[in-house]
């Protein structure tokens, strides 16, 4: 097998930790000696052993003289676990193949340098593009300090998320709704506007699939959210509001267990750039915006969205609530562009995934 084939195996292993490693990256490792895989490992959850530990423990004495394929540069610092670079040296690995350099400033080439100085042959860049896509949340956070933001929409073919009277259950099918819960389980936070909370009273938890519940972030510029809302269930709930919002309402929400973040405003609403910056500072690697139309528009106008995931149902509703509010765009040339488009069938619906470029105006 080639270096690329072994690295692809390591990437497949890394994906097994999806949704459980944040704020750490997903990492997979494969130890190979004389053309035979002698060890496999992946980072299964935050605080658990790193991928290199699993692969080298499985390899045992066969690690001496082997090649280690790892999807991310071995760490060189003491964190929750000892440095993996030191472990690699202690087990006698003769060659290390890394998909990419770790963008974390605490590592950022130091692990590679440590191995090279000890005489280990190191190759970097094998399937790097795939590795960067796998850890897009981690890479964005470590290079910018900001979370990776996904705008998730579920709409009819003609772009509606509800009928004119407000009915929205259910536009998409069972398979799409389960897929949306899977995505929810893989992000650190799910964000909605207070209008969605008032209209639908969602819990914003994960129950259609096995997985963790993300933190809930409610954008509420005037603190209109009712204290009885179901988003105030078990788990972390953050209400993002403006600096001028009512102090008494804020205290009552805090007394009920919610966090109230007072942030700068933009055009009378919570400044979403300031909110994302604060989420990044508090260690959130990823945020999924789930609604409603006004928040979706604000996020696109603010340029904070990295990716759109749009479920499109085979329905035509006609007059109703659009998926995205007014962006103030007068020319098609100034519209928000989507690139790197992928489309897949999810049950009876289509899932449209694309990178988002900010509007040019």
Describe the structure.
With 361 residues, this protein is an alpha/beta fold. 28% of the residues lie in helices and 27% in strands. It is built from eleven helices and 18 strands. The chain has helices spanning 3-14, 51-59, 84-90, 110-117, 128-134, 136-144, 174-186, 194-200, 247-255, 272-281, 293-302; strands spanning 28-33, 36-42, 67-70, 95-98, 121-124, 148-156, 160-163, 189-193, 215-219, 237-242, 259-263, 265-266, 269-270, 286-291, 307-313, 320-322, 337-346, 349-357. A nine-stranded mixed beta sheet has the order 11-10-9-8-14-6-15-18-17, sandwiched between helices. The chain has a five-stranded mixed beta sheet with strand order 2-1-3-4-5, sandwiched between helices. Helix 4 (110-117) links the parallel strand 4 and strand 5.
Mean pLDDT: 93
Q: What is the N-to-C order of secondary-structure elements (H for helix, E for strand)?
A: HEEHEHEHEHHEEHEHEEHEEEHEHEEEE
Helix/strand/pairing class, anyone? alpha/beta
Q: State the total count of DSSP E strands.
A: 18
Ends distance: 50 Å
Shape: elongated
Question: What are its keywords?
Answer:
27% strand; elongated; 11 helices; alpha/beta; 361 residues; 5-stranded mixed sheet
Write the layout of secondary structure elements.
Layout (H helix, E strand, L loop, with lengths): L2 H12 L13 E6 L2 E7 L8 H9 L7 E4 L13 H7 L4 E4 L11 H8 L3 E4 L3 H7 L1 H9 L3 E9 L3 E4 L10 H13 L2 E5 H7 L14 E5 L17 E6 L4 H9 L3 E5 L1 E2 L2 E2 L1 H10 L4 E6 L1 H10 L4 E7 L6 E3 L14 E10 L2 E9 L4
Parallel strand pairs: 3-4, 4-5, 6-14, 6-15, 8-9, 8-14, 9-10, 10-11
Antiparallel strand pairs: 1-2, 1-3, 7-16, 12-13, 15-18, 17-18
Helix pairs in contact: 3-4
